[in-house]
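User: Hi! Is it possible to get a structure for several chains at once, not just one? Here's what I have:
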Amino acid sequence: MNKDKKSRLQDVAKHAGVSMMTVSRVLNQNGMVSEKTKTKVQAKLKELNYQPNVSARRLASNKSFFLGLLYDNPSASYVSQFLLSSLKLCRDCGYHLVVDEVDKSLTKNLESVAELINITQVDGLILLPPVCDIAEILETLMAANIPFVRVSPNAQLNVSPYVCMDDYQAAFEITEQLIQQGHVNIAHIIGHPDVGASRLRYQGFLDALRSNKINIPPEYIEQGFFTYKSGLSATQKLLSLNNRPSAIFASNDDMAAAAISAAHMKNIPVPTALSVVGFDDTLLASTVWPHISTVRQPIKEMAKVAVELLVSGKFDDPANLKRSDLRHVLDFEIIQRESSTGIS
Amino acid sequence: MNKDKKSRLQDVAKHAGVSMMTVSRVLNQNGMVSEKTKTKVQAKLKELNYQPNVSARRLASNKSFFLGLLYDNPSASYVSQFLLSSLKLCRDCGYHLVVDEVDKSLTKNLESVAELINITQVDGLILLPPVCDIAEILETLMAANIPFVRVSPNAQLNVSPYVCMDDYQAAFEITEQLIQQGHVNIAHIIGHPDVGASRLRYQGFLDALRSNKINIPPEYIEQGFFTYKSGLSATQKLLSLNNRPSAIFASNDDMAAAAISAAHMKNIPVPTALSVVGFDDTLLASTVWPHISTVRQPIKEMAKVAVELLVSGKFDDPANLKRSDLRHVLDFEIIQRESSTGIS
DNA sequence: GCACAAAATGATAGCGTTAACATTTAACTT
DNA sequence: AAGTTAAATGTTAACGCTATCATTTTGTGC
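Assistant: Yes, the chains can be modeled jointly so their relative placement is included. Here is the combined structure:
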């Protein structure tokens, strides 16, 4: 297309009749430029279609303009949704995203984190659950003085900025909705034990039952791992009980999808004979039939908060780490679809 | 962890008693180093745990060590699977991946491609279908002299390296399998018209029917768009026909999942009253019930070929562009699951 | 109008690497 | 052994930007 060479800071400076530093300052918004020259320079920037050379910038400023995303989440739909959102957000603010899956074993974990830091020199990291609760990783990052934002963390909440939603409350409400629809025999498939949200959701579930004076037998609680497969075997156990539940609350959509599959296998119609609700509202929830009633988790918004926090550099100074405006609790939404219904 | 500063080329050179250039040459493998010094330097590299500074390298070499991935694919499961594979592969060879979704409108398309090239200065691009067949984009890239690999392209096959599989043959075989299972009334939901593979799969389907002397009414052909939603309405039409098909071959898994949903809505049991087969073998295929019989598309392998081609720099010289070893046709596999079965 | 501070701008020196060319060393020839 | 060529290594100057400090301009109070 345009055959002219990429214009450099120097070119812009020459055209605008100022020094390179002034142009640099305009670009980096760190003040100390008069309005007049600022507008002049900005005009030239546009005119020459200037695009900063990321590498030169990195080299000179010793910032990498890279963010890292660490995950080890069993729910593929959750990860990829978070990933895609983050990628776009990063691009919008001139950053790049380096994605890494951390290994199961702890030693390998630390290695790969160290490697990520070393090789790509990320300016900050986003930690998805359950990585965000691995104490050793947090320590490594703090020692290396690398800012990080945790997504839906479970413990050590005062350690770093984080973004989450009220998993407990959401679980409470979606359970209560099942109760209001007349369900009494409600089972729950717990999420991955390493993920803090699992426990919160479970607790919300229990408390909703309790506050409605509903007792369920212990067999109604199954441990899952956020995977389709684990949901499948959990549901199979639930559905072969003598006193079969009339509703299942799975701790994420993947397992809810599995619950529906398991019901189909046993010829139990959903939702007429069995209601199923999930959690997350990933794409999957509306790609299986029946579409899954679920809690919409604001994944995209969470990614946004995380990226913006890191880019803002608000907490480069460790002293700021305790500030409360670095902790974000976002809203959820209960979404009623075809997989759950009132009892007849 | 390690508190010592990152070691630089200079440090390694000093320790090894050679010049920086020699170290650089060892790193970049471009020959002209004696075995003896090579081993000596490599030992020091390891000893000092040297990690090259990507930015400095980029700046000096005028290479970016970035690859771009351009997509506009309606099938989320396909994209995210390709994406995750590519990300890992890139990291393994010291590259980073910049992902971009191209816009629907052509003008915006070109803009965003130009922007991608300008801003990130990618060394090469991977184009997923249907982006890989937008002539204007190809022209832009060629004019800018940026290497690119196309995935499952449709036309202009001699223009660039590509990787694909035999969509026609796969469609032929999976259709024939349905026929062998006794199906005669087989419907097809065509994929997105912009994606070349759609046509090939459709053709394979038609030819399988023809070679088995099976005629189907024109109503058995529905146009879809690779999305769940489009598959849903297509199947709804098919299932309300008087002469309902006994099997549906959807051009991808998302639409096959929709076909199953639509059948459920109408209380048509799958596979006993309706067999459904898909295409791609994305995660989705084994996350819905019944699990979808499908064609396994070697997505990961395709990503691998694409990344390796670009990294190898084999076709930096345009003269090489016609070489046949830059065109890869990978193997597929027919996967029989629970969504299709013999007719009784 | 003068001293003085504060704001705005400029000059210079890297950041860590590779390209391009210069030089040295080794390896053959005759 | 001198001459020639090739292989191995070294030197220097970018690459495009920002940090740091130096300098100029502007504004303020008396």
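Chain B touches chain A through 50 residues (CB under 8 Å). Residues 18-22, 25, 31-34, 37, 56, 58-62 of chain B lie near DNA strand D (CB under 10 Å from a C1').

User: Great, thank you!
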